[in-house]
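Dear support,

We are seeing what looks like truncated structure output for some complexes. This example has two components. We would appreciate it if you could run it in full and send us the complete token output so we can diff it against ours.
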Amino acid sequence: MVELKNVSFRYGSEEGHEYGENSLSGVSISVREGEFVLLTGPSGCGKTTVLRLINGLIPHFYPGFLEGEVLIDGKAVGSQKLYDTALQVGTVFQNPRSQFYNVDTTGELAFGCENRGLPEQEIYRRIDDTVARLGIEALMDRNIFRLSDGEKQKIACAAVSVAGAGIILLDEPSANLDYEATLALRKLILEWRKEGKTIVAAEHRIAYLWDLIDRAVILRDGKIIRELIGEEKNALTPEALAGMGLRSTIQESPGSVGLPSVLNEDETLTLTDFHFCYPGSKTPVVNLPTLSLAAGEITAITGRNGAGKTSLLNCICGLEKRCNGVLKYRDRTYNRKARQKLCFMVMQDTGNQLFTESVLEEVLISLPKGTENEKEQAAGILRALDLDQYLDRHPQSLSGGQKQRLAIACALASGREIIMLDEPTSGLDHAHMLETAALLKQLKARGITILVVTHDSELIRACCTRQYTIE
Amino acid sequence: MAYSSAQAQEKRRGFLDPRTKLALVLVLAVFVMGGLGGGQLRQIKTVLSALPFLLLLAERQWSRFAKGLAILAIGYGLLLAMPYLPGVLNYIALMCGGILTRFVVTVVMGEYLVATTSVSEFISAMERLHMPQTITIPMSVMFRLFPTIGSEWRSIRRAMAMRGIHLGGVKGGQVLEYQLVPMMTSTVRIGEELSASALTRGLGAPVRRTNICRIGFRAQDFVLLAGCLFVIAVWILELGGVKLW
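Here is the complete output from our reference environment:
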């Protein structure tokens, strides 16, 4: 049994400096053994903080100012060691790239058991058992750096299973997953339900587990605003959901939105001979003798994890030296080098493509050399993207959505005609997803061609006009 | 047939024990890179220098083998060309050639160690050497961070290419600074998330860790370790004025 009794928390430093406002104020939740509770609400509502309180990372890893009690089976989490809490609680984190300690998958599954010194034979037995139950034989003995995000998340879940804790915490585990991988995650959760595990999940994408949960706790600004049980949660209207800042509860495959890929009247851009394999591999990830996409439209590029969506964007952008395809657009042919000046990609890790020390400078270095009235031009673009109040901020200190807009501002400043986005709404709540959709429509109105790799059917419904599915 | 992790671990067992690899790195670093020892050790050093390349071949690391060999060839090429070069170039060739021929072999050995040792094998080896956790854990995190830093670095280089920032391009002089800003932010973040994840999985518990990987000395380990001891013995005898040949 997990109990939070009237808990308030504010992040701070170890020296006792507190910063910001309360992440949680007066939150009480109790989760019975074997119960499945969903924590949801808009970004910054405090759901991740609740999970960190349960697995002990607060206060042991993230210091701050804590009031109230957090108890597991009647014992305070804060006063026991993290490695003791680890025996009771297992956590699957949001970012599949930074939760692995090992480089090989099998080592990763064994890690938790090795840390507590279980005998090798017992660890082998548990791994084999989990592998068989989850059907992940094909993922064993692989290099984790070579797996797709969906595969990585499966390994993270399997690792929690092997460790065998009774309480499982899921921190936005589906943020980077496609439709199929999300369904696979759902099956895994069902498996845990059968075993009688206690599960607490923090999620924006609630559709895939809405019918599995016993209870939904909705948070906003660090407070519980509603708790829904049984029939109550099925009776919610889409308006009521949106009013609480929640995503849709209906699971929809991006493929079933059913937009056309290209219409006869569309102006097209044509890709020819786009082939790409990873170094040392002979199986092509991108394999397109020819492909036409609609210019001036918003095309959703969908397909399962590992189908090569991101690689396709990299190739179109001219970032893959090994891909020798050409792109025809408005009677001109663009080779790899030329495409680097025509296209722009907003990467999943937007922070990795912002280099300077202020928002304004970031746009200034993107303007072509010799532009007149540089500063006014840059400020104008930033105003159009609602960033003019942040001119002097450090780009790395912006929120995810703001970084996205800044990257797009740079693309506009450098006069790119094709803008691509790689999963722009992963981990975004309803309101932020709609903001991204509005932004894409604004770009389309400027005549820009937009390709967006996404598995977010709500985003596709909100703004996309064409769709291409990679088989 | 059902998956068996025990069999798979046996199959993926490396050619050498990680401890042997560590010993070889140390011996190469001291004698080949550090240049310890006098005339007697010359022939031995030649043999030692060939070792990392042979090991790379044994583990089928073709591209690392080719790269190391190419750089070594450049080093010797420079030394051979040196006498025929005029003035300053002569010194530059001597310096570069000297550095390359000295360093490459040991670097290749280090690369062999990192490339063929899993985190689990490394921790296991350190424990058998009775290293305290305070040393083992940070070192094993570094093992894990190398490939991560590599992939972040590449991802940032790509983003720069796309933004049109490269040497000789826009603001060429600031390339390094631009590269480091996102690099530091993302490395710090990944390091923090990695530690958080490892802690929730019981890393650092005061129990004797177990390891599912298969390590342990076999014939090839004994031969190579004996080789290491032999080199050290020759050196000590030489210090004492005893000449073996």
